Amino acid sequence: MTRMSRIVASVILAGAVTGCVSQEKYNALKLDRDGLAEQLGTAQKDAAASAREAQLAKEQLNALMSQGGNSTALVANLSQQLANAQAQLEELNRRYADAMRNAGGGQALPAPLTNELTAFANANPDLVDFDAARGIVKFKSDVTFAKGDATVTPRAKEVIDRFATILNSQSASAYELLVAGHTDNSPVVNPATRAAGHRDNWFLSSHRAISVGEELMSKGTNPQRIGVVGYADQRPVSSNASESGKAQNRRVEVLILPSQVRGGGNIASTPAPKTNARPRNDLNKDSGAANVNTGPMFNK
Q: If 134 and its partner were Cys, which of 70, 91, 104, 119 is the partner (CB 3.0–4.6 Å)?
């Protein structure tokens, strides 16, 4: 319940969502996606356990070899254990990847909108990825924000403003939007980052999603279309065992949903007031020093 209470930080900026499909179909789709999410969580736990087993076998083998390897049979046994654990881990990773590819299940976006979003992502490859199969635009946190911060960088602001123009166009204006923040699994330890309000990964992911949502609204995207949520490190798209994997997990996704606000009505884009931005802190949340400005601005 402690973890669930943190989800309070996931601020919903808009009203309830209703789909264009019937309530029964919507509930069925939701149950199906919840089941997939549970399967993904189980696959991740199994993969982590296999990785630990492989590492233990490897350490035992290395220790034995360093001592002269007096027992040929034991060396062969440990080598086989390591090979089996690695094969199991590879299989679990394959199953996890397959589940991720099949987790969308939603209605495809119209071809003109898909083409426009694809061109948008191709024009900004350093900052944006577009998953056409699931209608998800991903902003890379290492470029969208400074280290341990939730303030949109000037470069990212320009790109998000262009994105808002697409969302406010006739081809996209009927869709609702869910802005979802994600982090890697490194804990927030920097006192200054915590003092800025980003107390843990739940808060940081939520605050970053809020910042992107605010930027979209400042460019005329109707607040009734936007919802915001933070998932912390609970929905990784890559392994946190490597720095490149962690970088992929640090992201803000904008899900373009084939649904309309409750009661229909006009949801055309209208300007929304810009809320006061939170204080900016150019801090790595795992660093102890303030105003660090050496090398690339990575978030962790």
A: 104
